[in-house]
Structure formats: structure tokens, C-alpha cells
Design goal:
The complex is a heterodimer of chains A (about 140) and B (about 260). Chain A is mainly α and about 140 residues long. Chain A is built from 6 helices and no strands. Chain A is about 75% helix and about 0% strand. The longest helix of chain A is centred in the C-terminal third of the chain and has 32 residues. Chain A is elongated, with a radius of gyration of 23 Å. Chain A starts with a helix and ends with a helix. Chain B is mainly α and about 260 residues long. In chain B, helix 4 crosses helix 5 and helix 7 crosses helix 8. Chain B is globular. The relative contact order of chain B is 0.14.
Chain lengths: ~140, ~260
């Protein structure tokens, strides 16, 4: 057990955390009955993906991807091998926009939930299905 | 009940498959991982190019900003459009005007004696805090290519400062400072600023969003500085759109689209 932990889990612990978080989100998306709880699952799922991307960019002992202000000398010093001294900026760029877009799309989801509640007075999925079915039977 | 058992089985299988695949991944913090260093024997990865060359290409010390606003400018433009579209979707779904909007949906803040006491402390604190938040947000936008920051972060902070006003007092206080007409047009203006920086190089005979040629208009020494200045312009556009849409989302969600009363 300890062997398994140190050889398999520890070197990849970031991926283990990401998979566990993502599965928590996926579980609540499938199993939960309340639409708001499903939104929460979606947000957890998204956070797991963001964690995954950002952890991909980490390099041991590297510094932030901001060169010093008079970066000309420093930039000249950076050769192909010492690109290891700065973390990978690409995942940061991708997740920076993804976070803001995530908030905006979550807002749209909450707006839809609000309209559903206004129309049916419930956010429980089974009750919603029953009420929608009753509407169709009336026609 | 059945759904929970089924969900647990599905999640367990998916998780097991993912964790099995994870053992082949590079270890945490490995500087030689394919994402950071490219595949062995192949071309160097994009990130290595950015780290080595982007300062020379753009004269922007913050690599995240230079990748975000220049190399991947097309992507960022449409990310901003997605934020704008989300704001428009919320407007279309929730906003009600006319008769339905008449009755306020909740108790107005400060209407009771309890509320008044709360408003003195919270309101005064927020009156002191909001200018500081906004100044810092402007710094984050304007200094985004020299230090950590940029349009998205600064825009969210600016939006949060208006949300803070609405939370501390009531929504009307915030709406007198940033009316609905103002935030909707600011959101559109932000997109237009960004797209304008894309179209200008086209008018000068280059590709969409190829800022280097703007040196003729911006009177900078060399195309690199033109790229640096254009990135600042683009970030301002992003900040305007993000700020307006964040506030629009809050204002519409908290009042069920009536923009009256509020929390």
C-alpha cells in the first residue's frame, strides 16, 4: 500500500486530485435531482479541468512567466536549455479566459433556472418532468 | 435511489479508467514534460518559443499577456465575444419591462430600522473600499503587460466593485453610477475596441490582428512597441466588456430581471 502510494500516486498526485474532483462533479451531475446542485457539480467539474491545465504548466524550481522589467539582458541570457527556468505560460493563458467565460456561462445557467422556477415553482427534476408531462396530457 | 447507484457505478468506472491512464503521464513539476519541452527529437514546443522569443517579438515582459493578446489574439477576441453573448443571453432570458416590472420582488434594503443600522457600518466601509478597489483594478488593467494582470482580471475587479455597491446599499445606488444603458453600451464598445484593433491592420494591408503595422499610426519606434501598445488597447476593450457583463449578470439575477429592489 505504501509502495503503491509513493511510486504511483505521489508523482502524479495532481492528476489524482483532478480525477477525483472531476468524478465528484460528474456524480452530482448524474445523481442529483435538484438543478442548482447540478450546476454546482458542473462548476466543480470545470474547476477540476482548470486545476489539471495549470498543474501541467508547473516546472520544478521555475519562476513566474513575467520577465523582469529590463528584460532585454535577461531575455538574451535565456537560451534553449534555460527555458526550464520559467513555468509554461500557455496553460495559464488558456485557463485565464476559461475562468471568466465559466462565470458568464454559469450566469446563463442560473438565469435559465430562475425562469424554470418562475414557470413551474420547482427545481427538482422529477417534479419538473411530472409537471411537463401533465402539461402535454392536457393538450 | 436507482439513479444514485447507477451514477456511482458509472463514475467509478470512468474514474478507474482515467486513473489508469494517469500513470503514463509525466510526473508533477517535470520540466521535460511534452507540454513544456515538446516531444523528444521533434520541434521545440510552442511554450519554449514564447519564453525565448516573445520578449524580442513584442517587448512585453508578461509572457501570459503577450501570448493572450498577440499570439492567441484571435482566440481571446472570441472568448470576449462569448462573455458578451452570455450577457446578452441573460438579458434576453430574464429582463422584464413594463407592467410585470412594477412590483419589487423583495424587501428594499434600508427600509427597516435594522437595515438602517447595518447600512451605516457596511455602507461607510464600502464607500471607503470601492475607490481603492477601482484604482487597483485600473492599475491591474493598465499595468497588465508589465506585471501579473490584464483585461480579464481587471474587468472582473471593476465589475465586483459595482456589485459591492449594490450589495452594501441597494441596486439603485449601483445603477445610478452604471445605468443599464451605460453597461450595455460599454459591453458593445469593448468588443468594438478589440475588433477595431483587428480591422486597423487590415486597412493598412496586413492580416487581422497583426498589430506590428500599427507603428505607422501610433508613431512608435519599431513594430515591437506598436504590438506592446496595441495589447494595452485590446486589454482595455476586454476589461470594459467583462466589467459590464459581470455587473449585468448580478443585476439581472438578483432582481429576476426587473432591476428593481434587489437583494
Amino acid at each position: 500500500m505504501a509502495d503503491f502510494f509513493f511510486n504511483t500516486v505521489k508523482p502524479h498526485f495532481n492528476f489524482w486530485i483532478y480525477v477525483i474532483l472531476m468524478m465528484i462533479g460528474l456524480w452530482s451531475l448524474i445523481a442529483k435531482n435538484n438543478l442548482i446542485k447540478k450546476m454546482m457539480g458542473l462548476a466543480i467539474f470545470q474547476t477540476a479541468i482548470i486545476l489539471f491545465y495549470v498543474s501541467l504548466g508547473v516546472k520544478d524550481g521555475a519562476t513566474i512567466p513575467v520577465l523582469e522589467h529590463y528584460g532585454a539582458e535577461r531575455a538574451a541570457l535565456i537560451s534553449d536549455s534555460s527555458a526550464d527556468a520559467i513555468v509554461n505560460p500557455v496553460p495559464h493563458v488558456l485557463m485565464l479566459t476559461a475562468i471568466v467565460v465559466g462565470v458568464a456561462t454559469l450566469g446563463v445557467a442560473l438565469a435559465l433556472c430562475q425562469m424554470i422556477f418562475k414557470e413551474f415553482d420547482t427545481l427538482e427534476e422529477d417534479e419538473l418532468l411530472r409537471k411537463i408531462k401533465a402539461l402535454h396530457d392536457d393538450d | 435511489m436507482n439513479a444514485k447507484i447507477f451514477a456511482s457505478i458509472a463514475v467509478a468506472i470512468t474514474g478507474a479508467v482515467l486513473l489508469y491512464g494517469v500513470s503514463d503521464f509525466p510526473t508533477f513539476g517535470d520540466p521535460r514534460s511534452p507540454a513544456s519541452a515538446g516531444v523528444e527529437g521533434g520541434a521545440p514546443s510552442a511554450s519554449q518559443y514564447y519564453i525565448n522569443e516573445s520578449y524580442g517579438d513584442t517587448k512585453v515582459p508578461n509572457l501570459v499577456t503577450s501570448v493572450l493578446a498577440d499570439y492567441r489574439g484571435y482566440d481571446t477576441l472570441f472568448e470576449t465575444v462569448v462573455v458578451f453573448a452570455a450577457g446578452m443571453a441573460i438579458f434576453a432570458i430574464l429582463r422584464v419591462v413594463g407592467k410585470e416590472a412594477k412590483q419589487p420582488t423583495g424587501p428594499r434594503a434600508g427600509s427597516s430600522i435594522d437595515g438602517d443600522h447595518q447600512r451605516i457600518i457596511v455602507g461607510t466601509t464600502c464607500r471607503l473600499a470601492v475607490p481603492v478597489v477601482q484604482i487597483f483594478a485600473l492599475y491591474v488593467v493598465a499595468h497588465g503587460h508589465h506585471s501579473p494582470g490584464g483585461g480579464f482580471q481587471g474587468g472582473v475587479m471593476l465589475g465586483a466593485s459595482f456589485i459591492l455597491i449594490a450589495l452594501a446599499g441597494n441596486l439603485d445606488d449601483a445603477l445610478t453610477r452604471l445605468s443599464e444603458k451605460a453597461y450595455l453600451s460599454l459591453a458593445a464598445i469593448g468588443i468594438m475596441i478589440y475588433a477595431g484593433f483587428g480591422v486597423l491592420p487590415q486597412l493598412l494591408g496586413k492580416n487581422f490582428l497583426d498589430y506590428g503595422v500599427l507603428e505607422k499610426i501610433l508613431f512608435t519606434d519599431g513594430p515591437e512597441m506598436a504590438r506592446s501598445h496595441s495589447m494595452l488597447g485590446v486589454e482595455i476593450g476586454v476589461a470594459l466588456t467583462v466589467m459590464s457583463i459581470m455587473f449585468a449578470i448580478f443585476a439581472n439575477l438578483s432582481t429576476r430581471g426587473t432591476l428593481k429592489g434587489g437583494l
